[in-house]
Amino acid sequence: MLDPWLLERLVCPVTRRPLRYDEAAHELVSEAAGLAYPIRDGVPVMLVEEARVLG
């Protein structure tokens, strides 16, 4: 589980809009950008190069 305090403060680096935590996929999802950022070892990887494009 991602810390709710952290989730409230993180934004998409592309759109600067809030992210949605997808617990099942262990990703932070930016609906606006169509990207999903991975969480590795409890740390969100907020690099566009590491994001998965949503289909």
TrEMBL record:
HAMAP family: UPF0434. Belongs to the UPF0434 family. This is UPF0434 protein ILT43_11315. It comes from Sphingomonas longa.
